[in-house]
Amino acid sequence: MEIIAILESHIHHFLHGIKTEAKEERAAALIIVKYIREGEITAEEDHILKTQIMDSLKILGIGVPFVLIPGASVLMPILIKVASKHNIELMPSAFITPADSGNSGNVI
Fold it and tell me: What is the superkingdom listed in this entry's lineage (predicted)?
């Protein structure tokens, strides 16, 4: 019973992260369109756009090895855990829980 509850919690967190990431992608696209039309964006929009671009690169960095490298489903969680111990955040911001945020110092 406890394992099912843990799995449900992790699945819920994953799906919520995907939903949040999709919303952030749409917001970034609107900022890009605004920049193309008007030629300028606010400092806050600039920060949002840079954060989202970094998140997109992180998703590519995690997703591509799953497709190309055999055994990556075992290797990537270990790599993410080791990186977080060295204050390197490999997960996109939508997938970071408040408990994890104390771990991240440097963002890569």
Answer: Bacteria
